[in-house]
Hints:
The chain has 2 helices and 6 strands. With 116 residues, the protein is an alpha+beta fold. The chain has a single domain, classed as S-adenosylmethionine decarboxylase, CATH 3.60.90.10. α1 runs antiparallel to α2 (90-101). The relative contact order is 0.34.
Amino acid sequence: MEELKRINELLVDLYGCQGSLDSVEFLVGILRSAARSMGSKVVKTVSHKFSPTGITVILILAETHISIHTWPEYHYAALDIFICSEEINPKIGWEVVKDALKPSSFNIHEMTRRIT
């Protein structure tokens, strides 16, 4: 039987963010920095600015994806770092995002998935 492969995912709710949650350029830069810090390869970047506020940014990685959805009016963001490489630690990318957005509090849900 083949060895199980572990897939890690972090789902993070960020509250009281001080960083700009309504700038596509700022958020793309943060996610690219997070991907770089983890050693991930960015394959494609997709973003959408909602009216009147709010942004979604998704970086498709060679190792799956990292995404953020923001609600600036509530100083809230939802982050998803999904990595399908056992050599890459999504917590490293989370630290980059946390340092940039400076949330007053956050809630992390960590998932480990296994495939054969």
